[in-house]
C-alpha cells in the first residue's frame, strides 16, 4: 500500500506512525525495577543465593555452607563485571572510566551546582558595573 504524499515530512510521519503502531501492538514490554542501592555486579544467581540464605536463616539451618557459596559467587560476579568493564577500554574508554569510578565508589561531580554558584556570584558582582537607571 503506497500513498502519494505531498512532502517528505508527511511520508516520514506516516511511516513513523505505522512503525510505532506495530511496535506497540507486537513487541512485549517488561518493566524492570532498578533500585538505587543495587550493585552493578549483582546477578540473578547471587540474588537467588541470598534468598536461599534468608530461608535457611528463618528455619535455623546450618548457614556456613550457603555463606561460603554466596561469598564465592559474589567474587565471581565481581570478577566478571570487572572484566566486562575493562573490555571497554579499547572500544569506549569514556564509559569504561565511568564504570571504574562507579566500582571505586567515587561520586559524580556536581558541575551544575558549581555553575549555578558561579552565575550567582557573577550576577552579584556585575550589579556594580551596570549603569544606574534614572
Number of strands: 0
Oligomeric state of the chains in view? single chain
User: Helix segment count?
Assistant: 6
Termini Cα gap: 70 Å
User: For the report, how would you describe the main beta sheet?
Assistant: none
Q: Structural class, from secondary structure content?
A: mainly alpha
Cα-atom Rg, whole angstroms?
Answer: 27 Å
Structure description:
- This protein is mainly α.
- It is 66% helix and 0% strand.
- It has 6 helices and no strands.
- Helix 2 (44-58) packs antiparallel against helix 3 (64-86).
- The protein is flat and about 80 Å long.
- The protein starts with 7 loop residues before the first helix and ends in an 8-residue tail after the last helix.
Name its key features.
134 residues, single chain, 6 helices
SSE map:
Elements: H1 8-26, H2 44-58, H3 64-86, H4 88-91, H5 93-104, H6 111-126
Helix pairs in contact: 2-3
State the gist of this model.
This protein has 134 residues and is mainly α. The chain has helices at residues 8-26, 44-58, 64-86, 88-91, 93-104, 111-126. The protein is 66% helix and 0% strand.
Amino acid at each position: 500500500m503506497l500513498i502519494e504524499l505531498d512532502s517528505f515530512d508527511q511520508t516520514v510521519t506516516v511511516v513513523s506512525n505505522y512503525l510505532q503502531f506495530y511496535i506497540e501492538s507486537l513487541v512485549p514490554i517488561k518493566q524492570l525495577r532498578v533500585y538505587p542501592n543495587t550493585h552493578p555486579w549483582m546477578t540473578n544467581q547471587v540474588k537467588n543465593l541470598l534468598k536461599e540464605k534468608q530461608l535457611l536463616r528463618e528455619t535455623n539451618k546450618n548457614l556456613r555452607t550457603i555463606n561460603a557459596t554466596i561469598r564465592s559467587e559474589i567474587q565471581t560476579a565481581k570478577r566478571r563485571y570487572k572484566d566486562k568493564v575493562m573490555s571497554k577500554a579499547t572500544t569506549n574508554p569514556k564509559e569504561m572510566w565511568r564504570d571504574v569510578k562507579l566500582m571505586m565508589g567515587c561520586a559524580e561531580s556536581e558541575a551544575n551546582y558549581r555553575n549555578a554558584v558561579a552565575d550567582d556570584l557573577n550576577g552579584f558582582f556585575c550589579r556594580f558595573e551596570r549603569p544606574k537607571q534614572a
